[in-house]
Amino acid sequence: MKRGAKKILFVASEAYPLVKTGGLGDVVYSLPHALHERGADLRLLLPGYRALLRQLDQVRILGWFDLRGAEGIVSARILETRHGDFPFPLWIVDCPPLFDRPGNPYVTAAGSDWPDNAERFAVFARAAAQLGLDALELGWKPDVVHCHDWQTGLVPAFLHAAPHRPRTVFTIHNLAYGGHFSHTDFVRLQLPSQWWSPEGVEFHGGFSMLKAGIVYADAVTTVSPTYAEEICTPAFGYGLDGLLRAVRHKLSGILNGIDTRLWDPSTDPHLPAHYSPNRIQPGKRRNKEALLSRFLPAVNDAAMQAPLVGQVGRLVEQKGIDWVLAAIPVLLAESDIRFVLLGSGQAMYEHKFTQLARQHPDRVFVEIGYDETLAHRIEAGADLFLMPSRFEPCGLNQMYSLRYGTPPVVFKTGGLADTVVDTTPETLDDASATGFVFDTPSVDGLLDAIRRALALYRKPALWRRLQQHGMRQSFDWSESAAHYLELYSA
Ligand code: ADP
Fold first, then answer.
1. Does 263 map to a domain?
2. Closest CA to 92 of 174, 18, 36, 33
3. Are residues 400 and 458 in the same domain?
4. CB-CB contact of 487 with 221 (8 Å)
5. Which one, of 324, 329, 314, lies nearest residue 438 by Cα?
6. Is the model's pLDDT at 484 over the cut of 80?
7. From CA 159, how far away is CA 132, in angstroms rounded?
8. Shared domain check, 337 and 311
């Protein structure tokens, strides 16, 4: 570590590979790595979920905090551990009554929010703020505390009035998740009464942890330039657009990068065969065959020649799942496509996809659940990738699919608009085309884009050119990590 390196405390509720529910987990893994490589001195603070603690070998107790919870004082141990996947120390808030439980970090097995989420993330934030002030006297006081999403929104608020405090940066990964809680929670948690105002954390009669982060952080970022603009409008602002317009001076959009080592089709250990832009076949074809053989007793020529359309992701309205559910039967009827989906989310969508797969067992392949390996294999084995999100703060899957030679079909919004260039005769010619972008938010818009893609797929030379353009895009962290470092120093 360079002397004088910036000390950054990263505070988040998930980090790949320890605990991940979506893109947040990927970014909380890959961004600190990129910052570390550029000389930053980091600690990553996470809640001590059971699933996380189970993966740790040796931990050291850094100290204890007594923190205000919903019913009184709760004690939390701060643990430090080294983990093979992280070149810097991990710090854990170990508070068993709040975090030692099975399953998902935010929701119960039935899919509803943990009823004590307000307390869980208020206590986590109190611990983070204390560490931001080096209250355990560890001799490591951060220059910057960088917080992510509503689960950490109270951290900048707790730090705001503290003397000699670090700079705070708050990153919005998805404005749709606001961390909304009741006035009763606010009182029970004994949050400072001066926060209770429309200029503070109050939001529609309750309070929002996300709003707290936006109001009290020194700098607010979101994960793509287009999304930073969109969230300042009523259509995308979830009632916070007025506030976001008011804090525009401290709001910026920094595009997420991807981890180009974990997501590299020429080395990816999850894949049965490897390939690169200069030699896409036969590697990609072998991936397609392996993927199909997971679902079919025998893979015939017809299946190999038919375009395989893939999708991976959370099955929620945001991701345009209803459009996909309406479009697939039309495409099955008018073309020879096959469709493969990996995802989990709303029970209704899970059910509908499962039904569709039952109706078309030789053409629609559905896996409900979470499976890192299969996610990589779909990115590599499919021919075309669907990501028609209604809104998308950044989106990682479309960048993975570009890198894997699987052109994405996306709606023109947020990070999708910032990372995918539509295919037209001109963009194919000037080598800027990478995928298929539609700008009418409807099933017809999606169908039209997929049909354009399928037409090009039948022209192998042009298709290969499109794949190569996408695979050669650079989505690594260099530029964006430099932006964050500038912001830390501002
Ligand atoms: P979001 O953060 O909104 O879920 P992103 O595209 O930004 O969407 O990131 C999603 C990340 O989670 C990607 O790494 C994707 O591969 C992964 N992912 C989503 N659903 C699944 C799943 N069912 N199985 C495996 N990985 C998944």
1. no
2. 18
3. yes
4. yes
5. 324
6. yes
7. 8
8. yes
Asked whether 175 lines ligand 1 (CB < 6 A), one says no
C-alpha 275/C-alpha 405 separation (Å) is 9
**Residue ranges of the alpha helices (H) in 311-442?**
321-334, 347-359, 372-381, 397-403, 414-419, 425-429
User: How far is Cα of residue 368 from the mean position of the Cα atoms in its chain?
Assistant: 19
In a 10 Å sphere around its CB, with 0-12 CB exposed, 13-18 middle and 19+ buried, how is residue 476 labelled? middle
Residues 313 and 231 in one domain: no
Alpha carbons within 13 angstroms on the beta-carbon side of residue 455 total 10
Based on the domain organization, do 176 and 35 belong to the same domain? yes
Pocket lining: 22 vs ligand 1, CB cutoff 6 Å? yes
- The rounded Å distance from CA 397 to ligand 1 centre is 7
Determine what percent of the chain falls in helix, strand and coil, rounding each to the nearest 5: 40, 20, 40
**Band (393; pLDDT cuts 50, 70, 90):** very high
The reply to whether 427 falls in a domain is yes
In this structure, the answer to whether residues 51 and 141 fall within a common structural domain is yes
Tokens matching residue 358: 């039952």
Domain that holds residue 167: 7-257+477-489
Instruction: Tell me the backbone φ, ψ of residue 141, rounded to 5 degrees.
Output: -110, 120
For residues 63 and 136, is the Cβ–Cβ distance under 8 A? yes
Structure tokens belonging to residue 477: 């962290």
Statement to judge: residues 133 and 220 lie in one domain: yes
Contacts of residue 54, Cβ cutoff 8 Å, sequence gap at least 6: none
Split at pLDDT 50, 70, 90, the class of 2 is low
How remote is the CA of residue 305 from the centroid of ligand 1, in Å? 28
Whether the predicted pLDDT of 4 surpasses 90: no
289 and 433 within one domain: yes
Q: Mean pLDDT across the chain, nearest whole number?
A: 97
Q: Which two tokens stand for residue 177?
A: 């998740």
Strand segments, DSSP code E, in 155-272 are 167-172, 180-181, 202-203, 206-208, 219-222, 251-253
Is 379 touching ligand 1 by the criterion CB < 6 Å?
no
Q: Tell me if 272 is assigned to some domain.
A: no
Which residue type occupies 223?
Answer: V
The predicted model gives 467-474 an average pLDDT of 96
pLDDT in tens, 82-125: 999 999 999 999 999 999 999 899 999 888 999 999 999 999 99
**Residue 292's CATH number:** 3.40.50.2000
pLDDT at 257 over 90: yes
Token pair of 197 as six digits: 């105002």
Q: Which of 13, 35, 50 is nearest to 154 (CA)?
A: 13
Instruction: Output phi, psi for 279, to 5 deg.
Output: -145, 85
- What's this model's pTM, rounded to 2 decimal places? 0.94
How many distinct structural domains can be found in the chain? 2
Evaluate whether residue 104 is within a structural domain. Answer: yes
Q: Is the CB of 71 under 6 A from ligand 1?
A: no
The one-character DSSP state at 6 is P
Atom 24, ligand 1: which residue's CA is nearest?
A: 370
